[in-house]
Specification:
The protein is an alpha+beta fold. The protein has seven helices and eleven strands. The strands form four sheets. Strands 7-8-4-9-10 form a five-stranded antiparallel sheet. A two-stranded parallel ribbon has the order 1-11.
């Protein structure tokens, strides 16, 4: 495979993770498919370089030595790609940008379990006839308000300054360091007791914290609730629409996905990180890392659809 093809394997792309599939197995599967695609291609002819070898002169009986020019294969540029190469650096930039993620979270009123999941060990059953959509919306507004105050606190910004005002207008207020889960938006999409469906925009979350959020909403409503489903629909600038399905986890589709995402990755990271970002490392539609050897590491999975 030529160096032009290798350069297309440096970048970020998203995949759709089916329910129940562990992310490590997903990563290994994608890596295997990339290797199959690379190995199926006809390898390029080795590049040649000239070396001068010391040896006896031909046709001479005396032990005279001479320098003979010959060509030998140069092994420096032989492809050893096992992943998305220097795009792994961009995963660190995504982390440092503290980008938000979107989830749909499904809850069930009337019971509590030991792990906040619907199939956990039952702890308590309660009535929920008094719960209305209006009461739920009021609780969600309170949660969003308290988390917005926490976001400002963790951002270490003085809201009276012009810089903070401009960042707030652009929606760029982010925590300076790692923080607890912060919710930037939450609303109810569907309410049909005992079931309800929430849309949650947040950062620094874990699956357990999202399940616990449903439990706490139940307590605020003077009842109980468990989480029956958590589904990620957006991870930073990657959405389900840009995520590769399992049937698309192959070399060609991954290369196309990296190329398609590159302009948005560059724009969003520059917007979020600004002066902190080394713009020389940002991808573009013509982004190429041919000047450096390919990486042998597939970066941690961050695909949408968890």
């Amino acid at each position: 495979m030529g160096s032009a093809g290798l350069s297309r394997l440096h970048g970020l792309f998203a995949v759709y993770k089916p329910p129940g599939l562990k992310w490590k197995h997903l990563r290994d599967t994608v890596e295997l498919q990339l290797l199959k695609g690379l190995n199926a291609r006809k390898p390029p002819a080795p590049k040649q370089r000239v070396r001068f070898l010391l040896g006896p002169m031909e046709g001479s009986e005396e032990k005279e030595l001479t320098l003979t020019a010959t060509s030998v294969p140069s092994l420096v540029n032989h492809p050893l790609v096992l992943g998305v190469g220097h795009g792994c650096r961009l995963l660190t930039d995504m982390y440092n940008a503290h980008l938000t993620k979107d989830y749909t979270v499904r809850g069930l009123l009337g019971k509590a379990t030991d792990d906040f999941c619907e199939d956990g060990r039952l702890v308590e059953k309660t009535t929920y006839d008094h719960v209305t959509r209006e009461k739920l919306d009021r609780i969600l507004a309170m949660i969003q308000g308290s988390h917005q105050k926490a976001l400002v606190m963790y951002s270490n910004l003085d809201l009276k300054t012009q810089e903070a005002y401009e960042m707030a207008v652009r929606g760029l207020i982010r925590p300076m360091n790692k923080s607890p889960m912060l919710i930037t938006g939450i609303r109810c999409l569907h309410f049909a007791p005992p079931e309800f469906l929430l849309e949650v925009q947040c950062m620094h979350e874990t699956q357990k914290e999202l399940r616990k959020l449903v439990h706490e909403i139940g307590l605020e409503l003077k009842t109980t609730a468990v989480c029956s489903q958590v589904r990620r629909t957006r991870d930073g600038f990657f959405t389900l629409d840009s995520a590769l399905l399992r049937t698309q986890w192959d070399l060609h589709n991954i290369q196309d996905a990296i190329r398609a995402a590159a302009p948005q990755v560059a724009a969003e990271l520059e917007k979020s990180l600004g002066p902190q970002l080394d713009t020389k490392e940002l991808p573009s539609r013509e982004w190429s890392w041919e000047s450096q050897g390919p990486s042998s590491t597939l970066g941690p999975e961050r695909g949408a659809g968890h």
